[in-house]
Amino acid sequence: GQNIDQPTEMTATEGAIVQINCTYQTSGFNGLFWYQQHAGEAPTFLSYNVLDGLEEKGRFSSFLSRSKGYSYLLLKELQMKDSASYLCAVRERGGATNKLIFGTGTLLAVQP
Amino acid sequence: DTAVSQTPKYLVTQMGNDKSIKCEQNLGHDTMYWYKQDSKKFLKIMFSYNNKELIINETVPNRFSPKSPDKAHLNLHINSLELGDSAVYFCASSQRVFAAGGTGELFFGEGSRLTVL
User: How many H helices and E strands in chain A?
Assistant: First the structure.
């Protein structure tokens, strides 16, 4: 079966660091994505992990452990504009298809 | 220039009607998708086309029919609309997986908010 779990909501303070966790159980694994979605807007790509370890991209970093079925997104130096939903998505292994299964998302509220 | 564009952005209609949503991408991608995002913000794949060929067809009522006239366009037609069809429908596109060392990440359109009364 397919199961991707994330916390529903999180709150953090401007300037702080926040870690959003994602655990998954899917039919095969071929990469994990993090997307950001502001209210009323389209999801936008943040990061991609296919091998174990940390990928850093400016203020955002993403970690993957395939053996544990676990990933996290780390946001540093939080800004008010980081208030958004953060979606974890796993690509299933499957030939030429690029089927991404999304979690329900974590709504992050950044407070002053 | 908008990379993935959908029309209309908002659609309000009565139960039982038939409606279409259009999507176009100018990124040169081979693969396009339709996702549905419900009121709980859960984003679920419906269909995917690769160069006009249907390659993903999830468990979706056959009232939903996608059509891809060419690899830059993917339309969604919905017959006999029901209240439960109310959602935001997102079109997306991507390169083929691992093409030119890419990640195959999805580029989403702005969404089409469908409200069925």
Answer: 0, 11
Q: A111 and chain B: CB distance < 8 Å anywhere?
A: no
> Would you say residue B53 has pLDDT above 60?
yes
Contacts of A44 in chain B (CB under 8 A): 108
Nearest to B6 by CA among B30, B18, B22: B22
Structure tokens at B77: 């037609």
Residue B83 sits at the vertex; the CA angle it makes with B80 and B86, to the nearest 5 degrees, is 100
Best of A86, A98, A100 to disrupt the B interface (most B CBs within 10 Å) is A98
* For residues A12-19, average pLDDT: 97
Number of A to B CB contacts under 8 A, please give it: 63
**A43 token code pair:** 């999801």
Q: What is the pLDDT of residues A26-69, one digit of tens each?
A: 878 889 999 999 999 999 999 999 999 999 999 999 999 999 99
- What distances in angstroms separate CA B1 from CA B21, B71, B92, one per listed residue? 20, 18, 16
Three-state SS for B7?
strand
Mutation target among B10, B32, B103 for the A interface, most CBs of A within 10 A:
B103
Query: Could you give the CA distance from residue A1 to residue A12 in angstroms, rounded to a whole number?
Result: 33
Region B66-92: what's the mean pLDDT? 96
Question: Which strands make up the sheet holding A70-75, listed edge to edge?
Answer: A3-5, A18-25, A70-75, A60-65, A53-57
Length of chain B: 117
